[in-house]
Amino acid sequence: MKRTILIGLITIWTVLGLIAQNTPPENSPETLSTSADTIQDNAIVYPESMTEKLSDLLRNWQLDLSNAEIDCKRGQNVVFHDSVYIKKLHNLPSEMELSFNSVVKNYIEMYAVRKREQVSYMLALGDYYFPMFEQALDRHGLPLELKYLPVIESALNPVAVSRVGATGLWQFMLRTGKGYGLEVNSLVDERRDPYKSTDAAVRYLKDLYAIYRDWNLVIAAYNCGPGNVNKAIARSGGKRDYWEIYYRLPRETRGYVPAFIAANYIMNYYADHNICPAHSSSLTAALDTVQVNERIHLEQIAGVLDIPLGELQRLNPQFKRDVIPGDFRAHALVLPTEKMYAFIDKNDTIINYDKERYFTHRANTDGFLDGSVSSVSGNTTNVYYRVKKGDNLSTIARRHGTTVDLIKSWNGLRSNKINIGKQLVVGKKAVAPQATTEKQLAQAVTDNPDGKIQTVNQYYRVRKGDTLGDIARKNGIQVAQLQSWNGLNSSRIGIGDQLIVGKQVVPAPQEPESEKGDYNRAETAAGGGNIISSYLRDQIEKVEQNKGPDEQETASEVEAEISMESEEESTETTTSSP
């Protein structure tokens, strides 16, 4: 018995010794993880960016990876021991606390396994976005590790919109975005502008840090708002450690900091997990910015400068309808550097390129009310193009600011095959009616002595750069005629002036016979009662079928009142038919 007890004690002693040998020193990286390492939370809600379908993200990213370069050898994921994850996170040169626990591990495995392909594309996008984020963070003295926040906020998708309306790379709500100076209207949403939204986000993070002085709490507050973080602190008895208030936070926010830590890990150690960046030269091309102070459609720029519309949309996601409202205030347009000088040189050509098709909003419609302007809808002429060697329908459509389907429809094409030398209709241009000459006006009056014709003026509003010669040439008239019609003693005109540029002979409107009588207040139905009364009477009959005797009596009284009102109205109403 004593021998058995002795053997047992020796065994216990040996096991304790082995445990002691495997216990890391007190200050080693393995012991620097938070005391909340044992957190097991299966109730967390993944950020929306992590639930997006890759096909949807690829469409929104508008990536062209036809010339993708592979920087590492593809292979299966590598799983490490927890101590390796702890050490790797500790070794990152970070001002922020990047601790490890079971929740963080789940997110690391999610990126390394289920989201491997998404990480590959985000690494490619990072070549474009991360330097921009770093510059803004460095300018305000914030940790550069925060550049990975949009990875979990939006998956680096500048047009991302959450189920509650948060928008852009940094997922600003409307009120917060406007509060930090971002313009949001029907045409422009600067929450989607990579440059301006980044600056606003950095200023917001800086303000949050001034409140909490702890980056984990700052990131939590960025996600769920300072109010929810303050409630969690109060419910925990005033504790200001993220992991100590973890279970007091909203479920959506519990996984937010762990996801951010995992994003930092995977963006730095992706090669250790055999994940390859899908680099593309088109994402890292040299870019420049120009201020636009005219209203321009992106398709006009694409057509004149021969830039794919998708590339312009990717570089300028803030223009929600592909329209730059530069006439409201100047807006920044991002272009490839090699296209910048061409844009400046061809600015007037771009502004006037197929302008009638892209901008149909009329500035003033008073002429339609007073009869001085008649519509020219339907008066169009075809715009033609002769096919050259190397052309295809796609390039022709892009060059002329239209679509392949429209070109095929205009030309009766059943396939995309076209022959060199073929003349294609590539657009429709509105044509104003020819102005009537003074001689034609005089002859028209002579031929119609009974006064059944009249002349109406056609107007033009003077724009910047217009001259009388240009306006006369556009409208097929002489400068002298233009001066005579508008009482001009010189060729001087001002921007915004409305000039008569044509006169049209049209039939004079005839007074309808019905206007000679009194206006009918209400159309009457057979039997003398008006339509409204008939309708009410029908409704009462339906109600009476579902009511008791007392209620039916009340309904009958109402019907009697309606009949009396109908008789009174019939004495005041003049009808056009018996």
Walk me through the structure.
With 578 residues, this protein is mainly alpha-helical. It has five domains: 32-271, Lysozyme, CATH 1.10.530.10; 285-358, no CATH class; 366-430, Membrane-bound Lytic Murein Transglycosylase D, Chain A (Roll), CATH 3.10.350.10; 438-509, Membrane-bound Lytic Murein Transglycosylase D, Chain A (Roll); 525-572. It is 45% helix and 10% strand. It is built from 25 helices and ten strands. The chain has helices at residues 2-22, 54-61, 82-91, 102-114, 116-139, 149-154, 174-179, 194-212, 215-224, 226-235, 251-254, 256-269, 298-305, 309-315, 337-345, 347-352, 355-358, 366-370, 393-399, 404-411, 438-447, 468-474, 479-486, 531-544, 549-572; strands at 69-70, 278-279, 287-292, 295-297, 323-325, 331-336, 380-386, 423-430, 453-461, 498-507. The chain has a two-stranded antiparallel ribbon with strand order 1-2. It has a two-stranded antiparallel sheet with strand order 3-6. A two-stranded antiparallel ribbon has the order 4-5. Helix 4 crosses helix 5 and helix 5 packs across helix 8. The longest helix has 24 residues, at 116-139. 26% of the residues are buried.
